[in-house]
Inverse folding.
């Protein structure tokens, strides 16, 4: 005598779900969230860039289509080109500092002469676990123009008078770079340490037999072996530097006198401080184009599409 219920019987007789339909069903939630939080905002940003949107007309649905007027205005604005130049300079200098510090620390914590390397590696990644706004606020205090600022106290030990870090353009720019270096060096260290562990010890031994010193082994053995992973990390951290917003905004609003405005800060201020939503959207889209071209060129020239550890 069968004890199956009518419901159980129907479930057994039901046709199996087609694999293609199941795949589509599983992808739909991701597509929904991508559309809601990425695709739609980007499309709306493109629309705003062709309008004269402001708080006074946008929320009433009265924005006017202005075509390429915003793009013409932005591309002819000296402040925009100053922000682009400052951004690229910041990317170049900060990446050099991050690489120098990250690779140096990675070499130290992988050296056979160092003890407690695991403990040191755990300390190195601590900055990655702290909220960026917290770390940046601490560094703002370090560069405080007052005498109690740690940077000014350090200068005082060398007989140098206190300086107003945020009131002079290049001093403020230096403070941006140091803070960015602190925020990003753990990522460089992690990538470099992983790459260094894959360098065959036999290559170093052979170089030692040939009489190569530390610098020669680093140049001819270590660097070629870790080049692709480090290049991958460099591209990612350079893109992050291009999008840096919090450091200049928290330190001094990109000052003094808007001289240190990175492009993201420039677009934000045009949109939300000067209520030019259309211009702000245009600036952000131009920044996206710059970042996209930068990433495409580096991935193409670095042949990273073949894999981080691919053959040359």
């Amino acid at each position: 005598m069968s004890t199956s219920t009518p419901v159980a019987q129907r479930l057994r007789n039901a046709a199996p779900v087609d694999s293609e339909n199941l795949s589509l069903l599983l992808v739909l939630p991701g597509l929904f969230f991508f559309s809601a939080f990425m695709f739609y905002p980007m499309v709306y940003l493109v629309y705003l860039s062709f309008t004269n949107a402001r708080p006074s007309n946008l929320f009433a649905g009265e924005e006017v289509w202005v075509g390429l007027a915003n793009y013409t205005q932005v591309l002819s604005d000296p402040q925009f080109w100053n922000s682009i130049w400052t951004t690229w300079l910041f990317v170049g200098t900060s990446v050099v500092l991050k690489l120098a510090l990250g690779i140096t620390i990675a070499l130290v914590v992988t050296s056979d002469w160092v003890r407690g390397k695991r403990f040191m590696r755990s300390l190195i990644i601590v900055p990655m676990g702290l909220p960026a706004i917290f770390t940046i606020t601490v560094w703002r205090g370090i560069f405080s123009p007052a005498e109690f600022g740690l940077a000014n106290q350090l200068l005082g030990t060398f007989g140098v008078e206190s300086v107003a870090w945020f009131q002079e353009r290049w001093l403020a720019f230096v403070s941006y770079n140091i803070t960015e270096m602190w925020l990003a060096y753990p990522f460089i260290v992690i990538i470099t340490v992983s790459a260094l562990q894959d360098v065959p010890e036999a290559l170093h031994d052979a170089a030692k037999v040939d009489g190569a010193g530390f610098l020669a082994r680093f140049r001819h053995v270590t660097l070629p072996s870790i080049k692709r992973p480090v290049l991958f990390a460099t591209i990612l951290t350079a893109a992050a530097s291009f999008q840096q917003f919090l450091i200049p905004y928290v330190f001094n609003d990109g000052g003094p006198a808007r001289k240190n405005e990175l492009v993201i800060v420039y677009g934000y201020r045009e949109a939300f401080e000067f209520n030019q939503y259309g211009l702000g959207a245009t600036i952000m889209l131009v920044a996206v184009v710059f970042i996209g071209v930068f990433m495409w060129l580096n991935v193409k020239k670095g042949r990273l599409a073949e894999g981080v550890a691919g053959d040359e």
